[in-house]
Amino acid sequence: MGKEKLTDYFGCDVFNEAVMKERLPQAIFEGLLQTRRQDLPLTEEIATAVANAMKEWAIEKGATHFTHWFQPMTGITAEKHDSFITPAEGGKVMMEFSAKELIKGEPDASSFPSGGLRATFEARGYTTWDPTSDAFVKDGSLYIPTAFCSYSGEVLDKKTPLLRSMEALNREALRVLKYLEPRATHVYATVGAEQEYFIVDKALYLQREDLIFTGHTLFGAHPPKGQELSDHYFGNIKERINRFMQEVDETLWRLGVCSKTKHNEVAPAQHELAPIFSNCNVAADQNQLTMEVLKKVADHHGLVCLLHEKPFAGFNGSGKHNNWALCTDTGLNLLNPGKDPIHNDIFLVFLSAVIKAVDEYGDMLRLSCATAANDYRLGGHEAPPSIISMFLGEEITAVLTDYAQGAQGCEHCAGSLQTGVHSLAVLSKDGADRNRTSPFAFTGNKFEFRMVGANQSISGINITINTMVADALCTFADRLDAAQDPKEEIKQIITESVTKHGRIIFNGNNYSQEWVQEAQRRGLPHFKNAVEALVHFRDKKNIDQMVRMGIFTETEVLSRCDIMLDDYANTINIEARTMVDMAQKQIFPAVMQYAGTLCQVINQKAKAGISALKKEKEYVETINRLTEELLFATESLQAAIPGNKNFASCEEKARYFAESVKPKMEALRTVVDRLEVQTAKKDWPMPTYADLMFMV
Ligand code: ADP
Ligand code: MG
To answer: How many angstroms is it from 663 CA to the middle of ligand 1?
Structure first.
């Protein structure tokens, strides 16, 4: 790997436009480009030519199989591999791949979550080629990105609704742009997803059942040193980690993923990888690949990559910052304020659409990130709070307020940044300073949504953002179409983003207690856990919007809501059972053993005529008392685990776990963490936080 030039091998395993151009007849290539822009449907002629070229190319790359790569509701990817072989005369085989095999697959998909959309007896599901995302070769197979739906056409995956939301956004944005930038013929959402993760040593990982079964630690006392010195953030990268990162980058580059930035994050053992943004469908596919590559490459180095949202209590969790903007085919970023934002109607109208959308559908943003795992992170001291608000920065906020008051000039344009050191360049100042505490922050020419969990697919959140912004744009377009004077109407629309939706804008500290109260006064929703948020997916206004924009039917919304609630319950169930298992089989025996050893010493002392110290006895008594608490807490948690109990609905089940099981898990953890502090290191039955985070 090392000696090749990056520019030569970048994308070498991808059937990208350069390869298509080289290997397809001119007319077919041009037809395919139009399909990729979603301007024209795919024809059989194109599919046949592409299938053939793809097969030849993939075989040259060493592929023996092909797979329809899809994204069921599990949030990860799925694949089933078929080889290209077909029998030929004389006991030989030939390599074949037809247009039909490219376009349509039929995985027996009965075991994927469908939220009741499909019973196992009608398990048929179809996968269909997504020509807008490039196929690639990996591990001896040709991977074809596909969408996945049921026999009767119901959506069973995360890609189909994402593509639909992109279409809705394009349609409604163009209706508005007719009045502002008529040259544009296509609008698409651009997304750059920064990925945070933790790295731990594999040998230590394998000694912790909680990491193996749930992806995070369910027990663990805080080590003597935490993250208080901020010495890990952007710190020098250790050699072992660096070798891992280099292989990750090279692997991703071969797969055409523009991995751009890597650095150490705030918590010890925490890191980040950021790609260069692309259109949101490709970004979603590539983020799935990135997560897979991180995990696989870690293994090559005797490491494990933890993508869980909160691997270690008391330390920063991992998120996925979803950077989102809108771009036209004429190369214009619709969210770029430019030098003179107060006179930039395009920027102000599209900004207004986002403000209206976030104000009216903030609950949808929140619930798109609502998972059992993300609950451990959101609202914590260093994570985005679970109240949705928007940060615009003082300058852009002032531009909007000035505009609403009819001001003509721009008193609040960004100046230059004076470092006070003459040898340093004078930098132009971004329109918005960073506000790390806001869940939805304007960062110069894009929005950064920070609530998404590190382990989540980014499709869900982008379906939500695209749809709600498309819907807001639709109301604007309706108004403009009906207006006598569209120019005047545009003014109205922009003004309303402050007068009607100003409550959603908050530039202050989102972690403060005052904000919780202020948000309540403003009437902004605050859901205390994932279940409380998820049930609002079924609110009439939210279903209506999804249906109106053509993303989901009502049945599809209901089934998705059930899948998410069920996932919540199942996750907590596994965690609770893991805790009981560890408490009974590892922690209890270990502390009994340790208490026994101490008692032996005390007895030996007595035999030797030395009186045991008061403090020694107290120490053992503390362990004794905590051991009793441990047994009570374990028993109580075990009793709360419902086993095969039937619940009336997914909601009831999820609520049960949130309200009756989780508090018992917390109680058990508290006792165990106190016992850990009290027990000799050599007798503690698993690696500690210090071992896992500081010893890599
Ligand atoms: P940070 O927020 O950590 O300071 P950057 O400003 O470098 O990071 O950008 C973070 C991410 O935002 C990167 O993945 C980058 O490609 C992406 N990004 C930049 N511009 C856009 C855009 N117009 N649309 C979507 N994503 C963008
Ligand atoms: Mg960022």
So the answer is: 38
CATH number of the domain enclosing 143: 3.10.20.70
The reply to whether the predicted model has a pTM over 0.90 is: yes
pLDDT at 411 over 60: no
Ion ligand 2: residues, Cβ under 5 Å: 321
pLDDT tens readout for residues 212-259? 999 999 999 999 888 877 777 788 888 999 999 999 999 999 999 999
Whether 421 is covered by a domain: the verdict is: no
Helix, strand, coil % (nearest 5) of the chain?
Answer: 50, 15, 35
Same domain, yes or no, for 37 and 129? yes
β-partners of residue 304 are: 200
**Boundaries of domain holding 73:** 6-156
Q: What is the reported pLDDT for 317?
A: 94
Question: How many whole angstroms separate alpha carbon 507 and alpha carbon 497?
Answer: 15
User: Tokens 């819907």 correspond to what residue?
Assistant: 471
Cα 58 to Cα 60: distance, rounded to the nearest angstrom = 5
Q: Is residue 34 part of a domain?
A: yes
Q: Which residues touch 653 (CB under 8 Å, ≥6 apart)?
A: 565, 566, 569, 647
d(CA 27, CA 41): 15
When comparing pLDDT for 121 and 206, which is higher?
206
Q: For 647-665, write each residue's pLDDT tens digit.
A: 999 999 999 999 999 999 9
Note the ligand closest to the C-alpha atom of 335.
1
- Higher confidence at residue 37 or residue 410? 37
The Cα–Cα gap between 545 and 386 comes to 23
Alpha helices in 369-414 (DSSP H): 372-375, 394-404
pLDDT of residue 422: 53
Are residues 178 and 123 both part of a single domain?
Answer: no
Last residue in a domain, options 508, 525, 552 = 552
Mean pLDDT of 378-385: 76
Residues 6+ away with beta carbon under 8 Å from 667: 633, 636, 637
300 vs 316: CA distance, rounded Å: 26
In ligand 1, the atom with minimum distance to the C-alpha of 323 is 26
Minimal-distance CA residue to ligand 1 atom 1: 194
pLDDT tens sequence across 481-493: 999 999 999 999 9
